[in-house]
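task queued by scheduler; priority normal; single chain, no ligands, no partner chains; default sampling; output format set to structure tokens
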Amino acid sequence: MIAYLDNNSTTKPSPQVVKAVLKSLEHNWGNASSPHGFGQTSAKLIATARDQVAALVGVTADQVVFTSGATEANEAVLRHHLANGRILITSDIEHPAVTGVYRSRAPELIRIIPVDHEGRWDLDALETQLAGPPALVAVAWANGETGVLQNIQAISDCARNQGAQILLDASQAVGRIPIDDCARGATYITLSGHKLHAPKGTGALIQINELLDPVVIQVGGEQELGLRGGTENVPGIIGFGVACELRRRNIDGAIQHLADLRNRFETALGEKLPDIRVNGVRAPRVPNTSNITFCGVDGMALVARLEDKGILCSQLSACSSGSPEPSRTLTAMGLNSEQAFASVRFAFSVDNTLAEVEFAIQIIVAEVIYLREILGGLI
């Protein structure tokens, strides 16, 4: 048996998505900017996909601009506001894509908000920083390593009261929790299709408010409402739309299934390994993510041994996994380096089954006990 529990890194495209992409590649491959019927068929399919993405997020179709993913969308927003001289208010637990261009070009304009031991932003510190120069507040709704959800309503209220704009990376949240009015309090929402069983290389920038100065992602043509020039990735966009439509139709069932798997996983591991720590457990979390510290265990060794046994998981986000440093998210939450290195992330999807979870529990317990025996003692 193979238990793929790395779904915060990427998800398997659903069969319906694969079918729609193949159909587009074989039959609906016209250029959507062409005036003839063949091209306009592609344009109509893109419009349908835009409606499907908008419906899942709860926005209007004219607010959705297709991108290659959340990284491109985030980068465009950051670049836009850096050019306008805004400071960036963010935290040390954010995905690199949430801070990208500022860290490389203008680190002196970054203001860092501390987080508590559960990984939630310090709102008092946020209010203090917002009293300064005009700002862009950049935050991930759900942390990709721990699944911890930020209080987006409070963050948005603070930011708007001070005239700041809000960049909300919702890649790990969309399709895993209901999208309510608090998300639509942001100025920008970004997301990636491959976190939601759509093809890689798909995503969206959603500009919520009517902006006098909208973000232009890429010049060079009038595609994507004139905000991202270049011929559209028609098959990918169609697949992204289908994935969003599938999740919208069964959002409650998907959330319940994810929660059932995650809760069984954490409960059983806690019973068999009572000294483990579930990071962020006291905070609201997306229902699919468990980040667990296995005291006395080298997390990298555990991940490798689990892969040999058919369980795929990870320590850091995929975009940070090449780093030899301990997780910045976990150390910002108060874990020391040894505890951070002993932590492993497990992320479920709707494709996972209870049988896979039971299989994973059995193997994880055996491997943790084995590694503790050879490494000797607890941290």
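post-processing summary
- The longest helix spans residues 251-272.
- The radius of gyration is 21 Å.
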